[in-house]
């Protein structure tokens, strides 16, 4: 695996309406440098915010701007601090490296919440204790202990409850609750409520800044060919609605292995993504730095295909949302260099100052996406040194 140590040079060249960044990186597994290409929509910039974070997955932002990053394979949570707010990490703290797949994390009222195995832990007043976080307190112990990892999302809703998506422990199967559902937990009392069911593999969810409705991305099943079934973008309009799994995939792909119960009403997805792009993280853009057409729109991290004859995904897309419908889908950042994935974006969240953070579970990086709105320099002036650490 290539471990990115630093961005040494950024070379810009036009690719249609986008800009390609040829990033020369030094890696432990390579002698010298290797040129890679990342495609970024015109007007945007992309910098390496942090590296060597294991398989960087879930992220959570503290009230004081601390970025927490969970890694599944290394069992670690890191805290990244940009104290002078210049877009670069100044300090880095290891919260723990002894957890079991702490990929789903959330921050609320000063505390950091982590889902591991069958329980949820809380690190109290974490931003004041980054050097010595202490032992976390168990606040919930009714999650199913999963055999398949990477199938959870966790985020606090506008109502102050902790929403947890619990995916199915299989490619396709009938599994007992709470597998295949989204639940909302009162972290003070431990009471929980089922919000949605019939989901497969949800690791990204967010609430619309327009009307407060919950949206989530669900990955379709594998091994039905290159183009079936579509991955899904869903919205919760009715509490407790069923979203089809394992009986119906996407809008109308019938599962051959299981018959849908006669009286089961299935809620169809709001929008279908191409099959196997694997939407993992999602966030509505709440900043003001990006142009107005991006405001309050839905950004989705497509982690990329693994069982397809040619690769798709490996990008950040924006879904143009109006009147509770998705009108179109646009690529903002592509990490696919031909058939070579430069990164696998896992999560995307709003960052201080109106930028966005992107985690990469392939190289263990976090990128910072920002808008600069400046025309590219002339060819002879395009090479510039980067001071990223």
UniProtKB/TrEMBL annotation:
Gene3D superfamilies xrefs: TolB, C-terminal domain (2.120.10.30)
Domain of life (superkingdom): Bacteria
Ranges where the DUF7133 domain occurs: 38-360
Pfam families, A to Z: DUF7133
InterPro entries hit by this protein: 6-blade_b-propeller_TolB-like, DUF7133, Quinoprot_gluc/sorb_DH_b-prop
Name listed for the protein in its UniProt record: L-sorbosone dehydrogenase
Species name: Shewanella salipaludis
């Amino acid at each position: 695996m290539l471990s990115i140590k630093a961005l040494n040079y950024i070379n810009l060249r036009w690719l249609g309406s986008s800009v390609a960044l040829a990033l020369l990186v030094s890696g432990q597994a390579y002698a010298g440098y290797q040129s890679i290409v990342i495609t970024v929509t015109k007007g945007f910039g992309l910098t390496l915010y942090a590296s060597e974070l294991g398989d960087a997955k879930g992220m959570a932002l503290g009230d004081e701007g601390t970025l927490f990053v969970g890694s599944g394979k290394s069992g670690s949570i890191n805290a990244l601090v940009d104290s002078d707010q210049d877009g670069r990490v100044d300090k880095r703290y290891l919260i723990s490296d002894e957890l079991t797949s702490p990929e789903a994390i959330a921050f609320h009222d000063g505390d950091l919440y982590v889902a591991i195995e069958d329980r949820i832990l809380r690190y109290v007043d974490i931003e004041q204790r980054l050097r010595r976080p202490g032992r976390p307190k168990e606040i919930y112990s009714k999650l199913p202990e999963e055999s398949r990892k990477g199938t959870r999302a966790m985020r606090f809703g506008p109502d102050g409850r902790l929403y947890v998506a619990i995916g199915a422990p299989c490619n396709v199967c009938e599994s007992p609750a709470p597998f295949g559902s989204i639940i909302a937990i009162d972290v003070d009392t431990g009471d929980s409520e089922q919000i949605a069911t019939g989901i497969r593999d949800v690791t990204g969810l967010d609430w619309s800044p327009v009307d407060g409705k919950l949206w989530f991305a669900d990955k379709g099943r594998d091994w039905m060919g290159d183009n079936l079934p579509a991955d899904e973008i869903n919205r919760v309009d009715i509490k407790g609605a069923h979203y089809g799994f394992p009986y119906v995939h996407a809008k109308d792909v019938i599962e051959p292995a299981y018959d849908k119960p006669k009286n089961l009403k299935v809620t169809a997805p709001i929008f279908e993504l191409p099959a196997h792009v694997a939407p993992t993280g999602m966030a509505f853009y709440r900043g003001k730095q990006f142009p107005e057409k991006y405001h309050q729109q839905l950004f989705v991290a497509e982690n990329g295909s693994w069982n397809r004859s040619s690769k798709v995904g490996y990008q950040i897309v924006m879904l143009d949302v109006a009147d509770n419908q998705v009108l179109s889908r646009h690529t903002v950042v592509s990490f696919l260099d031909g058939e070579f994935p430069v990164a696998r974006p896992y999560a995307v969240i709003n960052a201080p100052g109106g930028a966005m953070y992107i985690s990469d579970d392939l190289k263990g990086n976090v990128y910072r996406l920002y808008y600069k709105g400046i025309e590219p320099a002339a060819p002879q002036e395009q090479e510039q040194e980067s001071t990223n650490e």
